[in-house]
């Protein structure tokens, strides 16, 4: 590594795997949460998971990013009509 001027930190790759998911379900008795990934937790066994869904008052981060990328619905673009094209055929 010294010969090539490489640092050990340059050899370490990026961490692989999925990033932590936000919790989707909450046990009202204990406050324990579950993201929906991995094995089903004991407090959810035999129960309808929809009853324990966490409702989000704010949109998910991805939705916020998409909303900032797209234009506001109040903005209007001037309507531009394409100019008519004249088609000419060779030899005719």
Features:
92 residues; 2 helices; flat; little secondary structure; two-stranded antiparallel sheet; H-NS DNA Binding Protein
Tell me what portion of residues adopts beta-strand conformation. Answer: under 5%
Please describe the biggest sheet, giving its number of strands, its sense, and whether it closes into a barrel: 2 strands, antiparallel
Based on the coordinates given, report the CATH architecture of the domain at 19-69: Irregular
Helicity, as a percent range: 10-25%
Give the end-to-end Cα distance, rounded to a whole number of Å: 72 Å
Structural class, please?
A: little secondary structure
Q: Low-confidence parts lasting 5 or more residues at pLDDT below 50? A: none
Order of helices and strands: HEEH
CATH fold field value of the domain at 19-69: H-NS DNA Binding Protein
The value of Rg in angstroms is 28 Å
Question: So how many helices?
Answer: 2
Question: What is the mean predicted local confidence, pLDDT?
Answer: 76
CATH class term of the domain at 19-69:
Few Secondary Structures
Q: Overall 3D geometry?
A: flat
Strand order of the largest sheet: 1-2
**Number of DSSP strands?**
2
